[in-house]
Write a structure and sequence with these properties.
Blueprint (H helix, E strand, L loop, with lengths): L7 E3 L7 E3 L12 E3 L1 H12 L4 H8 L3 H21 L3 E3 L4 E3 L17 H11 L1 E9 L2 E2 L8 E8 L2 E9 L8 H7 L4 E3 L5 H9 L3 E3 L6 H10 L13 E2 L2 E2 L11 E2 L1
Parallel strand pairs: 1-5, 2-14, 3-4, 6-10, 10-11
Antiparallel strand pairs: 2-4, 6-7, 6-8, 8-9, 12-13
Length: 257
């Protein structure tokens, strides 16, 4: 008898599990491409978090060859969706959710789905800086075009001071570095592209995208643990090296590939 398939360990189910073509060339009449949750996890670990295939395999509790096969299948499905305008759905697979309780030798850190909880806990016991993309008192909705950040110094969940800081013409590729130089550890923003997300993650900056409204109110809500934001918010219009997002920023539930 063949050996049973070992269930793959994943950290969390995706918050957005359905992506579809938006342009006129999309093939909505064709059947959807199904990406399993273990394939999604492999993409997240390798392409987003920058782990090696060996590290991915260890965290998912599979062999390296299995991780390599899962990753290859997932990338092939992404290519099919992007090139041929197919819908992508993320569902199913042979997986098991981790308990997300403590750091261990597989994750090397607290579980992905625990990061926000840990950030809020850090706010209670440490001093930190929170930045907000800023314009005329509001959360500016286009991270790549942000000319000013309002930076708040927080201690024990209380705002001690704040100041508006100009980016001095820094392009979107340098904004993560700019925030790191300001010792910012948390960013609240509106729309933001994938490249900027990766740069912020590499800089160790926690991201709360998809926020809107008064900047001061958003920071107060974050400190109170009830900020309204959408972790899947993106800037859907990219022109050259800038990030120009229109009315598609802030969609909930269904993304756009």
């Amino acid at each position: 008898m063949p050996r049973p398939c070992k269930r793959r360990r994943i950290c969390a189910e995706p918050s957005c599990d359905h992506f579809g073509p938006k342009g006129s060339g999309g093939s909505r009449s064709r059947s959807s491409i199904i990406m399993t949750l273990d394939e999604f996890e492999c993409i997240r670990l390798i392409d987003l978090e920058g782990k090696t295939q060996e590290e991915c395999a260890r965290q998912m509790e599979v062999s390296r060859t299995t991780a390599q096969a899962i990753y290859g299948s997932a990338r092939s499905k992404l290519a099919e969706c992007l090139v041929n305008g197919r819908e992508l759905k993320i569902e199913g697979g042979d997986y098991i959710l981790c308990d997300g309780a403590t750091p261990d030798s597989r994750c090397g850190q607290a579980c992905w789905r625990q990061q926000i909880t840990h950030t809020q806990h850090d706010m209670e016991v440490t001093s930190m800086k929170i930045a907000v993309t800023y314009e005329n008192g509001q959360v500016f909705q286009h991270f790549g075009h942000c000319e000013n950040f309002k930076i708040y110094e927080v201690e024990n969940k209380e705002i001690k001071s704040s100041a508006v800081v100009n980016t001095n013409g820094s392009g979107h590729g340098a904004l993560a570095g700019f925030l790191k130089e300001q010792n910012v550890s948390v960013l609240i923003c509106g729309g933001i592209g994938g490249g900027a997300r990766m740069a912020l993650a590499q800089a160790g900056i926690e991201l709360f995208p998809g926020a809107s409204g008064d900047a001061d109110d958003c920071v107060a809500s974050l400190l109170a643990g009830n900020l309204s934001y959408n972790p899947d918010t993106v800037c859907s219009h990219h022109h050259g090296d800038s990030h120009d997002c229109g009315h598609d920023c802030g969609h909930h539930g269904e993304g756009q590939a």
